[in-house]
Design goal:
- It contains 13 helices and ten strands.
- It has an eight-stranded mixed β-sheet, with helices on both faces. Strands 1-2 form a two-stranded antiparallel ribbon.
- It starts with a helix and ends in a 5-residue tail after the last helix.
- It is α+β, with helices and mostly antiparallel strands.
């Protein structure tokens, strides 16, 4: 449709349908604009932007071009103008597009590169924002688990938290963020924390700060190398069963035996090192679940599936206990039967 001269000028700032082209076709600018709209399904301004974006994408595929240069050579007034158009059309910024290209060719997929929009220099740095995630698979597992907990009504609103140790580094933990609704949450919203040698925990990635219960999750993972996933819920029946002077939770059905004995932790302020230490001590070397008075439940496992199973079956145990006691029909499994069932589970012979 465009002559060679016109195609070149398309990439000039402030380009419009030139007088020479109107004279060659004997059409007015208004008519040409209507014709373009009918022919391409978009007005001249949108068509021009699309052509420039295509050119910009081609330039950004080169190894030695900066984003500023790509913007100017494509007819945009500056990087801000191209960023706005690029983001609207592609869902990511030009910097992210370049980042994607660089990461796709980079073996160190665990690192996020920060790009300067003017120089495209790259530095390996643990940044809190970015399209390409560190520990993506672990974050996805944590997100799936929290959504399952919400679906099963083990968690309401923004309460509860779930964490998982990363396979890349046993000292790095992905954990749900603090105070953020789980509905609509994305993997990149999951926070990343590193457990440092001095006993502190440092938030290293994720745009939202990690759950205030980081100390509790990390205290258990530090003490238990066999634990790779932890789940803390405010589930109703587990909370009820932790009440009273001498609370206890005893299996009612065989599958529940795997998760007993269930420790009971006295109330301590949430998010404190105090409650973290008490939960760690209540679980001991082999415990899977403990209840926290006026707070909820804490479960752990070798992986997320195991930790979620512990959570689900313990809440089931608590629910059946509450209902049975309410109906006056409470009859837990005998201690000998519980031990026999646990032996079968340990031998991997449970049905």
């Amino acid at each position: 449709m465009f002559s060679g001269t016109m195609e070149l000028k398309i990439f000039d700032k402030g380009f419009r349908i030139p007088e020479s082209y109107r004279e060659e076709t004997f059409f007015s600018e208004a008519y040409l604009s209507r014709f373009i709209k009918q022919r391409f399904g978009k007005n001249f301004g949108k068509l021009l932007t699309d052509i420039r974006l295509t050119h910009a994408r081609q330039l950004l595929g080169l190894q030695d071009i900066t984003i500023l240069r790509a913007a100017l050579e494509s007819g945009f007034s500056d990087t801000a103008a191209m960023n706005k158009a690029f983001l609207s059309e592609n869902g990511i910024t030009p910097s992210d597009a370049v980042l994607k290209r660089k990461l796709s060719a980079c073996p160190e997929r665990g690192f996020l590169f920060i790009l300067d929009p003017e120089t495209e220099s790259t530095d390996r740095f643990p940044h809190r924002e970015g399209t390409f995630m560190k520990y993506e698979e672990t974050r996805k597992i944590v997100l799936e688990a929290i959504m399952e907990a919400v679906e099963q009504k083990l968690i309401n609103g923004t309460s509860g938290n779930i964490a998982m140790r990363t396979p890349e580094d046993p000292n790095v933990v992905c954990i749900t963020p603090s105070g953020i609704p789980y509905t609509g949450m994305k993997p990149e919203d999951i926070a990343v924390v590193v457990m440092k040698e001095d006993g502190t925990n440092e938030w290293i990635d994720g745009k939202y700060k990690p759950s205030s219960e980081v100390p509790m999750h990390c205290a258990v993972m530090r003490a238990r190398k066999d634990v790779n996933a932890t789940v803390h819920t405010h589930s109703m029946y587990a909370t009820i069963c932790a009440m009273g002077e001498n609370p206890q939770l005893i299996p009612i059905t065989p599958p529940q035996c795997e998760f007993t004995p269930v420790g009971i932790v006295s109330f301590t302020m949430p998010g404190s090192n105090d409650v973290a230490d008490k939960v760690r001590d209540a679980l001991g070397e082999k415990g899977r679940v403990c209840l926290i008075k006026n707070h909820g439940m804490f479960s752990c496992g070798k992986n997320m599936t195991a930790a979620m199973h512990a959570t689900v079956y313990t809440e089931e145990m608590a629910k059946t206990t509450v209902i049975a006691k309410t109906l006056g029909t409470y009859e837990p499994m005998p201690e000998e039967a519980v031990k026999a069932m646990q032996a079968l589970i340990a031998a991997d012979q449970a049905v």
